[in-house]
Amino acid sequence: MNDNNTKTAPRNTATRTAVEQVYEAIKQRILDGEYVSHQYVRESTVAKELDVSRTPVREALRELVSEGWLEAIPHHGARVTAWTEKDAREVFEIRLVLEPMAVAAACLRMDESRLNYLKGLARQMEALTERKDDAADVRNEIAALNHEFHRELIAACDNQRLIAMLQSLVRTSVIRRNFGQYNIAHLRRSMQHHAEILQAVEARNPAWAESMMRSHLLAARELHLKFIETPAD
Question: Which residue range is the domain that position 29 belongs to?
Answer without folding.
Answer: 2-80
